[in-house]
Amino acid sequence: MSPSWIFALLLLLPSLVDAAEPRRKSGEHASLPLNGREVYVRSCAMCHSTGAGGAPRLGSGEDWAERAKKGPAELMVSVLRGKGGMPPKGGNASLTRVEAYLALDYMLNVEK
User: Fold this and answer.
1) The pLDDT value given to residue 20
2) Are 49 and 57 in contact (CB under 8 A)?
3) pTM (2 decimals)?
4) How much is the pLDDT for 91?
5) Cβ neighbour number for residue 83 with a 10 Å cutoff
6) How far apart are the C-alpha atoms of 110 and 39, rounded to whole Å?
7) CB contact at 8 A, 57 and 65
8) What is the spatial distance between Cα 40 and Cα 102, in angstroms, rounded to a whole number?
9) Which domains, and CATH codes, for the chain?
């Protein structure tokens, strides 16, 4: 795949998740938190799928090894406050702390 295809795919992923998750749009379930994968796709994949700006790539044990040693609490502080080129909550201010943690947990535990 060429880089332009990857970029186009990343732009479309949130739309695909929205189409697959109609419960997020309906009234009674609208307040359910997103799961870790959903948050990753919507807010994290743009950088963490490619390593843009030094972001650790999803599924790359080498990229995550040193960071994981800090433990989830310290990593969560980075997620909430931002770190380096990453803005707080990956630039998605509407994420709840639970959703941010679920995304972090997903990225740390995805099959490597």
Assistant:
1) 43
2) yes
3) 0.69
4) 93
5) 15
6) 13
7) no
8) 9
9) 3-109 (1.10.760.10)
